[in-house]
């Protein structure tokens, strides 16, 4: 038993069938936004990066953008560039085309300006949407699903209601041969021993230790003595969390209890089954982008304070940690795990979540999808620096 | 003779009469986008507001408050999520110093995103109505702040057009206007701080401080040799400009001038971040030179594009306002830019405004957590 999804040429399967309009650089975002607005069936991936960053950030950005275009939920891509940017549109298109999906490139400068580029990209997008509409869902195994698990606006109940229920769902999927991506390394600080014991190999344990250690050093170097307090948000504190270690213990449980197969870099592709850890910040909007770029087709997101966050090309299933927030922010949340404190079992909510993820995988809209509450923030680790090319 | 602009309660003068909706944190962007789609208000969306180090949070706060205070904005709605570091009421409080109407909505206190959008629509309709009753009046040039975003020394073509920009800046300053050049590192850089006139020794010290900090960043990011190469390639922009005006003050990223005259702003040498800094500093109009035809404008400030090469202007006339590469003396081309700025100030739309082509990005210096 599996689910019905859109088959892709590289053997992956999409739970959605979007045509993505992807900016290779911030300057192309205006074209992307207009095309996505005017052509139904497309999703705009507009952002503010692609130039004026250090070499390693530019590679991180290129990996993120290539990963988003390669995500199985994307049937085809139009990459839009300016013509002089560091992350070149053609290079990006080449990386995405390795998946075998149709990829087109529009370079504003070569078209003679943004209006002509918009016209060309619009025509290409319409043709790609028509082509994509001919792809039909087929039955595939759960081994084709990669699930991202996230939390944002955590409270004191996150670690005993929503996150353990998400963990149940993660364990179920790993049992079916699927993959799970756990991230938000800041929210793993203090748990390296626990996670290390679950590593598949000593090498994986070493990598876990390394990424958490690096994040801890980074936090201390920027935040100093405030590191413990400032790595959790004021909302977390108001929600009853007292320290980053406490938040971490509640955070990691949403990855479930299975063996940790590997650690991948931010936005690095996840191609094998089992539980993976992705390097990256705890800040949820950046983090979701990285997880989507690993190839995750569905993301589950627990929230105690309430977040409307969705993502353009990946359905984000929102789970409330307390019933109060579920009642107040019902338009933005898909399932209430707060019932667990009233006596509903973690297993029961975990099973409901498996059902919900299955339905979403087969096409049911999440609340964030219904409202098109699409947030996309492309992460850069270091400062903005001298452009190495002109604009 | 001056320009026709919208008077603001704090004495500022807008050359546009926008209602802006700002996200205090990226999580609120979806509400702002919905209002943009529905009402065409100016959207101030970004990727910041939470999970950053203190320096970046302070920087984002200053930027968002500055954007709200920009005289081109008649009224502001700030939308927050609720659990973030940069709270909507705090940002709104800073904007309220300008005495313009400022409202706030917090998604977690308003019953979620959809109810927030409903409430925001009602607020924005009222703000648009109120703003509609403000009329343009004659004002002197001393009410105008102009940002000049130019890679003054980044290519032969931009070096060639730089003196025209310098002439334009001089023309404006002579009439009492305030001028801001961002990318301090590129403006001064390898030329050193003794090679152009400054208003006081304090300005020289501040320039040296900013340069040292930018140099440390470049060395950390690129290594010593590459940092020196970049600095050598970019520096000396001020000399290329040939501006006769002295440097009156140095501004932090997104900070507004407290004096008239020529200012340098501490921004990265990357236009997408620099333009946001200029707008937050209160520039009502920005002149941007372009080597490659970047079509991006800014949500609340008209950006006038000047090509550094005539072929580029011919190729991308839909996106570029003026040809800086045309034959003529620096004074002639500078005067042409100044005349065009006067028309834009009076209400004529720039190419990026006509195309509704807007990009906004706030600079960050450190990682996210």
Structural overview:
The complex is a heterodimer of chains A (391) and B (369). Chain A has 391 residues and is an alpha/beta fold. Helices cover 40% and strands 17% of the residues of chain A. Chain A has two domains: 117 residues, Rossmann fold; 229 residues. Chain A is built from 15 helices and 14 strands. In chain A, the strands form three sheets. In chain A, strands 10-11-9-8-12-13-14 form a seven-stranded parallel sheet, with helices on both faces. Chain A has a four-stranded parallel sheet with strand order 4-3-5-6, sandwiched between helices. Chain A has a three-stranded antiparallel sheet with strand order 2-1-7, with no helix packed on it. In chain A, strand 1 and strand 2 form a beta hairpin. In chain A, helix 2 packs across helix 3. Chain B is 41% helix and 17% strand. Chain B is an alpha/beta fold and 369 residues long. The longest helix of chain B is centred in the middle third of the chain and has 22 residues. In chain B, strands 10-11-9-8-12-13-14 form a seven-stranded parallel sheet, with helices on both faces. Chains A and B meet through helix 1, helix 5, helix 8, helix 10 and helix 12 of A and helix 1, helix 4, helix 7 and helix 10 of B.
The beta-strand count of chain B equals: 14
Number of strand segments of chain A: 14
Structural class of chain B: alpha/beta
Write down the overall geometry of chain B.
globular
Helix content of chain A: 25-40%
Placed side by side, the strands forming the largest sheet of chain B appear as: 10-11-9-8-12-13-14
Structural classification of chain A:
alpha/beta
Largest contact between protein chains?
A-B, 77 and 72 residues
Shape of chain A: globular
Kindly report the spatial arrangement of strands forming the biggest sheet of chain A: 10-11-9-8-12-13-14
- Overall mean pLDDT of chain B stands at 92
- The percent range for strand residues of chain A is 15-25%
The sequence of SSEs of chain A as H and E is EEEHEHEHEHHEEHEHHHHHEEHEEHEHH
Sheet with most strands of chain B: 7 strands, parallel
Total domains of chain A: 2
Q: Return Rg of chain A in Å.
A: 20 Å
The description of the largest β-sheet of chain A is:
7 strands, parallel
> Uncertain spans of chain A, ≥5 residues at pLDDT below 50?
none
């Amino acid at each position: 038993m599996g689910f019905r999804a859109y088959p892709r040429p590289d053997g992956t399967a999409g739970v959605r069938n979007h045509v993505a309009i992807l900016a290779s650089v911030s300057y192309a975002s205006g074209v992307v936004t207009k095309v996505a607005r005017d052509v139904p069936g497309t999703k705009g991936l507009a952002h503010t990066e692609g130039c004026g960053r250090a070499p390693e950030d530019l590679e991180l950005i290129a990996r993120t953008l290539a990963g988003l275009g390669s995500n199985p939920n994307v049937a085809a891509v139009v990459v839009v560039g300016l013509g002089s940017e560091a992350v070149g549109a053609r290079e990006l298109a080449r990386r995405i085309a390795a998946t075998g999906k149709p990829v087109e490139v529009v370079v504003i400068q070569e078209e003679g300006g943004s209006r002509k580029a918009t016209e060309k990209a619009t025509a290409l997008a319409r043709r790609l949407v028509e082509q994509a509409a001919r792809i039909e869902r087929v039955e595939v195994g759960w081994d084709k699903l990669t699930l991202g698990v996230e939390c944002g606006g955590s409270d004191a109940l996150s670690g005993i209601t929503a996150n353990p229920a998400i963990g149940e769902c993660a364990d179920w999927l790993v049992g079916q041969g699927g993959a799970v991506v756990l991230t938000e390394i800041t929210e793993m600080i203090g748990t390296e021993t626990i996670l290390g014991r679950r590593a598949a190999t000593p090498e994986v344990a070493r990598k876990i230790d390394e990424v958490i250690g690096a994040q801890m050093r980074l936090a201390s170097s920027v935040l100093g003595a405030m590191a413990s307090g400032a790595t959790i948000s004021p909302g977390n504190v108001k929600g009853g969390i007292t320290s980053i270690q406490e938040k971490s213990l509640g955070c990691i449980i949403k990855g479930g209890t299975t063996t940790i197969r590997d650690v991948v870099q931010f936005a690095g592709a996840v191609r094998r089954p089992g539980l993976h850890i992705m390097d990256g910040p705890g800040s949820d909007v950046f983090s979701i982008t990285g997880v989507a770029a690993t190839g995750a087709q569905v993301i589950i997101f627990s929230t105690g304070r309430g977040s409307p966050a969705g993502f353009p090309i990946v359905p984000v299933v929102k789970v409330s940690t307390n019933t109060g927030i579920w009642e107040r922010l019902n338009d933005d949340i898909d399932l209430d795990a707060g019932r667990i404190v009233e006596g509903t079992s973690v297993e029961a909510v975990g099973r409901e979540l498996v059902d919900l993820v299955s339905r979403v995988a087969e096409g049911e809209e999440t609340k964030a999808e219904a409202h098109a509450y699409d947030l996309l923030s492309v992460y850069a680790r270091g400062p903005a620096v001298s452009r190495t090319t002109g604009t | 003779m001056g320009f026709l602009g919208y008077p603001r309660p704090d004495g500022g003068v807008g050359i546009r009469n926008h209602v802006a909706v700002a996200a205090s944190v990226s999580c609120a962007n979806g509400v702002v986008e919905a209002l943009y789609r529905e009402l065409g208000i100016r959207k101030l969306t970004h990727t910041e507001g939470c999970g950053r180090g203190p320096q970046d949070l302070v920087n984002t706060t200053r930027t968002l408050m500055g954007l709200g205070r920009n005289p081109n904005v008649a009224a502001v709605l700030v939308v927050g999520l609720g659990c973030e570091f940069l709270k909507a009421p705090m940002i709104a409080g800073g904007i309220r110093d300008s005495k313009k109407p400022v409202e706030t909505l917090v998604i977690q206190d308003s019953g979620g995103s959809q109810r927030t959008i409903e409430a925001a629509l009602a607020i924005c309709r009222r703000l648009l109505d109120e703003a509609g009753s403000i009329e343009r009046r004659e004002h002197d040039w001393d009410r105008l702040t102009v940002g000049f975003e130019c890679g003054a020394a980044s290519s032969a073509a931009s070096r060639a057009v730089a003196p025209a920009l310098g002439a334009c800046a001089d023309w404006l300053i002579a009439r009492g206007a305030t001028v801001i050049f961002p990318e301090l590192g590129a403006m001064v850089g390898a030329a050193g701080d003794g090679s152009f006139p400054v208003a006081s020794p304090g300005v020289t010290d501040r320039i040296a401080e900013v340069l040292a900090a930018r140099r440390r960043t470049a060395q950390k990011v690129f290594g010593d040799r590459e940092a020196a190469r970049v600095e050598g390639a970019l520096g000396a922009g001020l000399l290329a400009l040939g501006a006769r005006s002295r440097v009156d003050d140095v501004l932090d990223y997104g900070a507004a001038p407290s004096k008239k005259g020529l200012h340098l702003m501490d921004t990265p040498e990357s236009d997408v971040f620099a333009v946001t800094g200029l707008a937050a500093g209160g520039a009502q109009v920005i002149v941007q030179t372009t080597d490659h035809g970047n079509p991006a404008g800014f949500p609340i400030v008209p950006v006038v594009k000047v090509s550094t090469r005539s072929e580029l202007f011919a190729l991308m006339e839909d996106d570029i306002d003026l040809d800086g590469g045309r034959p003529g003396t620096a004074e002639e081309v500078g005067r042409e830019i100044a005349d065009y700025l006067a028309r834009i100030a009076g209400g004529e739309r720039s190419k990026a405004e006509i195309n509704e082509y807007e990009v906004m990005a706030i600079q960050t210096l450190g990682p996210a957590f």
